[in-house]
């Protein structure tokens, strides 16, 4: 069978009702698991494996690939609507997707994401078909130095990502890297920073951190301020026309779409790099190359670029996965495992022996991405209603769902505790205007950079390979260029003396210094512990904790020494930049929304809103009335106490008892819901969760330490 | 497969606590089958799901074998409604510790990589929370002799070329794995002038690194890279197993010199990967007896044999007694070899 006739064969086998049925089930599975925070698509795929044993290999593969391709877009829906990416590949989408939601334009953002996702995978597939003859040479030209530099370029993006509060962003990135060191060292054999906890040996998963930093933090903030995601008054256009407007919008930006998709496909072709990097690089190339950017404040191009890239990336990743058996991602790893189960061996012989499987995968990727995007467009008007649910109902549900999702990953109580801990960390970071996205980038890229760096040094006997190999050299130059460009443009940015002073004032508040100081202690501790590690395991922890400590010392010195503060205040000053919408204190947001409401249109309103943002920033805090502040403080205190109680409860008596109790208390005493609503919601939610997790997914519920069962 | 399956006793309290009127019928059904399974005549049979620990992530060789066995096992050899649940618990020391420290009730078993388990126990006593010799051995699935491979376009035609070469490079997976150990033992026995890069994630990464030219040779299992040999990407230079470990249906391996033929009898079979199924120490005799029979029946099942052939996964089943003896041999060998490797 030659490669071309494989296409005909694949089409013949796919044009059957049973194949289409399995295909649809696969897409649904991917969409649902992608949508639920915590339960990632790979969990869904793994759960399906036992049911496929009797199936024809072709149909089983159709099911798996459909689930894999269907999940990416779904993850962007929660990123847009509740600031909680379905998985780390959707994290970049929160930058602009969530601000759009807050402006009542969630449907529009979903439309953009749906269309960009579909077109992204279409372009990606077109590219890999064109590149087929070159697969091998592309794959083989990326060695350890190139992989290292790709990761480093991603980390350099941190500096860009946190414009306006660069030092804080860098510190957050270092925290992410430190977290990535937990567990087994990729090379060197040491177990690092586990403090005797067996559960930490395999490291801290990105999903658990995402759940904590995004879902829990966002829910906390919503319930404390008792806000809806999108304020009522701002209905704008009807839901469906808004969604179509978003879908059409993508066609008005063909070059951005193409650039982002090409970038995504390229990253996908390189094994082991992953969609998170693809999405972020696409986001920042968009931010740097488009005219008149409003990125971070609800610019639809900030949704278009990362979503097109991460779906294109899946298309790109199909090639190394199928042709070399190197899983491009965790999801592909499970699909490859399932293929072997069915007697299909991915690898160099697959294209020769069963080109029909390869063609089928390609067609299913396009099809699944089309169907899941269509789901999105059809259901978006209903989905966006979630942004109109009052926070006292929505937020406790998000917290409970997210935390249960964290448990669902591995059925480990420790993941629940970690998710809550990261929720509190995220809340502290947000309170002091420290961006959380760099932390995610550090966490996701850390292992890749560390491993490939050590492999480069071992294989090429030193650092020279980084500059003597052409692709690596290009990446080095690109990284330096990104950093230099950023420093220069920061210097040139015109900041009024007034705004600068205000920035310095907000950057030197006591609670800010306290949190930064705390992170400094963590860095110092990490440094001391790192000296005990073996040679190769020690390199990265030593470097990173030293840099982090230096950054903290620099920050505190500038903040506390009057001379330095006058001279170098601008270095630490909070400014306006990419992530401003994400940091602006939440009470300010309300006013922001109102400012936007007063405005008439949609797009023009956004622009005005942004301009007012900096002005309002200075005046807000004293303006809030005292009674409101006291109430706010009480809610915040209660919710934090409840979160800590949640963790303690899970530890002591297990999830089964703690979830209903905490849900009840959160709604009643933080959300101030009526008894009736509280009781009904608690019973129904607990029942649904129990049904989903225990009866359907058959996850064992573990008891706690004090109440084992 | 039925969705409503017998659930363990411990679920009952959760359901009561949650007071779930809506799903009461379901919950009741879920908890109905709760009877203890120990029957009067001292025999034993499981009445709930069995956890099967794989100390590696999903997709590798150990995972594939485990899933293949688990499927056939739960379809035809276990009581209705009792399933085998594969749990991937990397990294290796963590996974093996879990196997070792699980309750000895027959509801947790796992697949143990030898000689990695004993090598880790010797090299990393702090991490290795187990005694390899104390596991309750249930049987063996496969024996995987190691092979020295080079990329097809390599200048090295024979193992002698490799021995004569200077300043060559090898690539392997994580330190302490059986493959890494086999590589080190080879370098030492052949006195190669070689530098090893660790940290590749799985067989495909090892092969691509060699194809890129980042390594001159590598040592990997004979059953893991059949596809790459058949596609002409890599070729074998020497077989490290013994004559009787050589799989008959591997034509490509028949003409490759064994370590013994190449003049390194000590290396032959010194490091052969065994995929062993074990339970925690001191498994009660009726339980161990049941599980051993179950494993043997499953591996003799025509369905399993067909699957293994299709998936290109050779199987070399052994009884618990034979496996115990093989493990004891490897423990003795490793106690001698590992300290030498550490010194070298």
What are the defining features of this structure?
heterodimer, A: 709 residues, mainly alpha, two-stranded antiparallel sheet, 32 helices, 2 strands, B: 344 residues, alpha/beta, D-Maltodextrin-Binding Protein, domain 2, 3 domains, seven-stranded mixed β-sheet, 13 helices, 9 strands, 40% helix, globular, disordered N terminus
What's the quick description here?
The complex is a heterodimer of chains A (709) and B (344). Chain A is mainly alpha-helical and 709 residues long.
Description of the molecule:
The complex is a heterodimer of chains A (709) and B (344). By secondary structure, chain A is mainly α. Chain A has 32 helices and 2 strands. In chain A, strand 1 and strand 2 (191-192) form a beta hairpin. In chain A, helix 18 packs parallel to helix 32. Mean pLDDT of chain A is 82; it is low at 577-623. In chain B, helix 3 (61-76) links the parallel strand 1 (50-54) and strand 2 (84-88). With 344 residues, chain B is of the alpha/beta class. Residues 1-38 of chain B have low confidence and may be disordered. The longest helix of chain B has 24 residues, at 320-343. Chain B is globular, with a radius of gyration of 22 Å. Chain B has 13 helices and 9 strands. Chain B has helices spanning 11-18, 24-32, 61-76, 92-101, 116-123, 159-164, 178-190, 203-212, 226-230, 251-254, 285-300, 302-310, 320-343, and strands at 50-54, 84-88, 108-114, 136-151, 168-171, 194-197, 218-221, 234-239, 272-279. In chain B, the strands form 2 sheets. In chain B, strands 1, 2, 3, 4, 7, 8 and 9 form a 7-stranded mixed sheet that branches. In chain B, strands 5-6 form a two-stranded parallel sheet. The chains are: A mainly alpha (709), B alpha/beta (344). Chains A and B meet through strand 1, helix 15, helix 20, helix 31 and helix 32 of A and helix 1, helix 2, helix 3, helix 4 and strand 6 of B.
């Amino acid at each position: 069978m030659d490669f071309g006739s494989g296409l005909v064969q694949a089409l013949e086998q796919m044009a059957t009702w049973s194949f289409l049925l399995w295909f649809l089930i696969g897409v649904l599975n991917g969409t649902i698991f992608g949508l639920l925070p915590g339960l990632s698509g790979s969990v869904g795929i793994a759960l399906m494996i036992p049911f496929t044993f009797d199936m024809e290999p072709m149909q089983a593969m159709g099911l798996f690939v459909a689930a894999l391709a269907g999940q990416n877009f779904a993850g962007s829906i929660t990123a847009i609507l509740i600031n909680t990416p379905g998985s780390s590949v959707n994290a970049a989408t929160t930058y602009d997707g969530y601000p759009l939601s807050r402006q009542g334009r969630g449907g529009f953002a979903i439309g953009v994401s749906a269309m960009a996702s579909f077109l992204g995978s279409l372009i990606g597939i077109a590219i890999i078909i064109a590149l087929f003859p070159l697969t091998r040479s592309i794959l083989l030209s990326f060695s350890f130095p190139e992989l290292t530099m790709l990761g480093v370029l991603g980390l350099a993006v941190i500096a860009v990502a946190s414009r306006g509060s660069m030092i804080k962003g860098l510190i957050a990135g270092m925290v992410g890297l430190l977290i990535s060191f937990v567990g087994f060292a990729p090379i060197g054999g040491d177990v690092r920073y586990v403090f005797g906890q067996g559960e930490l040996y395999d490291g801290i998963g990105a999903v658990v951190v995402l759940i904590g930093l995004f879902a829990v933090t966002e829910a906390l903030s919503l319930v404390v301020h008792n806000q809806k995601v999108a304020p009522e008054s701002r209905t704008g256009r009807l839901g469906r026309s808004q969604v179509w407007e978003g879908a059409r919008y993508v066609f008005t930006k063909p070059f951005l779409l193409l650039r982002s998709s090409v970038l995504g496909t390229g990253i996908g072709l390189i094994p082991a790099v992953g969609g998170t990097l693809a999405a972020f690089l696409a986001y920042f190339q968009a931010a740097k190359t488009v005219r008149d950017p409003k990125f971070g404040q609800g610019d639809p191009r900030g949704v278009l670029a990362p979503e097109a890239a991460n779906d294109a990336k899946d298309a790109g990743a199909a090639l190394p996965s199928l042709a070399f058996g190197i899983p491009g991602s965790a999801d592909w790893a499970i699909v490859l495992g399932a293929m072997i189960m069915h007697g299909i061996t991915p690898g160099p012989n697959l294209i020769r022996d069963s080109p029909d499987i390869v063609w089928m995968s390609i067609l299913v990727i396009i099809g699944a991405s089309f169907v899941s995007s269509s789901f999105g467009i059809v259901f978006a008007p209903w989905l966006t209603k979630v942004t109109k649910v009052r926070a006292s109902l929505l937020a406790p549900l998000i917290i409970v769902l997210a935390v249960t999702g964290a448990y669902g990953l591995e059925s480990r109580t420790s993941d629940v505790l970690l998710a809550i801990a990261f929720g509190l960390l995220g809340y502290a970071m947000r309170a002091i205007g420290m961006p959380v996205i760099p932390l995610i980038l550090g966490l996701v890229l850390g292992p890749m950079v560390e491993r490939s760096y050590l492999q480069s040094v071992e294989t090429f006997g030193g650092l020279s390979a980084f500059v003597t190999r052409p692709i690596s050299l290009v990446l080095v130059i690109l990284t330096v260029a990104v950093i230099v460009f950023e420093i220069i443009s920061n210097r040139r940015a015109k900041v009024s003396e007034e705004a600068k002073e205000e920035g310095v004032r907000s950057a030197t508040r006591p609670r800010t210094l306290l949190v930064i100081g705390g992170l400094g202690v963590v860095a110092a501790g990490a440094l001391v512990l790192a000296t005990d590690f073996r040679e190769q395991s020690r390199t990265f922890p030593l470097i990173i904790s030293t840099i982090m400590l230096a950054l903290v010392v620099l920050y505190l010195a500038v903040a506390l020494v009057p001379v330095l503060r006058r001279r170098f205040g601008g270095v630490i000053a909070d400014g306006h930049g990419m992530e401003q919408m994400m940091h602006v204190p939440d009470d300010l947001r309300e006013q922001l929304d109102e400012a936007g409401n007063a405005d008439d249109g949609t797009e023009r309103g956004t622009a005005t809103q942004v301009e007012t943002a900096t002005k309002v920033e200075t005046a807000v805090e004293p303006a809030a009335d005292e009674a409101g502040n006291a109430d706010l403080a009480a809610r915040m205190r209660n919710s934090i106490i409840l979160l800590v109680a949640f963790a303690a409860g899970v530890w002591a008596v297990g999830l089964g008892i703690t979830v209903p109790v905490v849900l009840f208390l959160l709604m009643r005493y933080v959300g101030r819901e009526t008894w009736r609503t509280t009781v009904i919601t608690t019973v129904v939610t607990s029942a649904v969760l129990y049904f989903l997790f225990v009866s359907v997914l058959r996850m064992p519920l573990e008891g706690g330490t004090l109440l084992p069962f | 497969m039925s969705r409503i399956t017998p659930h363990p006793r411990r679920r009952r309290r959760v359901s009561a606590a949650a007071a779930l009127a809506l799903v009461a019928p379901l919950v009741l059904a879920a908890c109905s089958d709760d009877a203890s399974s120990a029957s009067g005549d001292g025999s034993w049979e499981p009445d709930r799901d069995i956890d099967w620990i794989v100390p590696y992530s999903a997709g590798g060789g150990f995972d594939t074998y485990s899933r293949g066995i688990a499927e056939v096992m739960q379809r035809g050899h276990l009581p209705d409604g009792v399933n085998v649940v594969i749990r991937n618990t990397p990294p290796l020391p963590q996974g093996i510790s879990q196997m070792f420290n699980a309750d000895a009730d027959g509801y947790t078993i796992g697949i143990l990589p030898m000689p990695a388990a004993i090598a880790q126990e010797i090299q990393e006593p702090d991490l290795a929370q187990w005694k390899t010799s104390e596991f309750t051995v249930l049987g063996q699935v496969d024996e995987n002799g190691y092979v020295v491979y080079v990329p097809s376009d390599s200048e090295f035609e024979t193992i002698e070329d490799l021995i004569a070469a200077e300043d060559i490079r090898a690539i392997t997976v994580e330190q302490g794995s059986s493959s890494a150990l086999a590589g080190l033992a080879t370098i030492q026995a052949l006195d190669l002038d070689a530098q090893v890069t660790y940290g590749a994630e799985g067989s495909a990464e090892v092969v691509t690194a060699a194809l890129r030219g980042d390594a001159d040779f590598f040592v990997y299992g004979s059953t893991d890279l059949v596809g790459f040999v058949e596609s002409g990407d890599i070729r074998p230079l020497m077989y490290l197993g013994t004559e009787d470990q050589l799989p008959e249906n591997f034509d490509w391996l028949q003409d490759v010199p064994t370590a013994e033929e190449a003049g390194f009898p000590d290396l032959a079979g010194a490091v052969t990967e065994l995929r062993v199924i074990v339970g925690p120490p001191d498994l009660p005799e009726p339980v161990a007896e049941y599980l051993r029979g179950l494993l043997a029946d499953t591996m003799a099942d025509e369905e399993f044999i067909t699957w293994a052939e299709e998936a290109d996964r050779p199987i070399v089943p052994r009884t618990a007694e034979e496996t115990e003896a093989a493990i004891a041999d490897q423990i003795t060998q490793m106690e001698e070899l590992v300290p030498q490797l550490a010194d070298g």
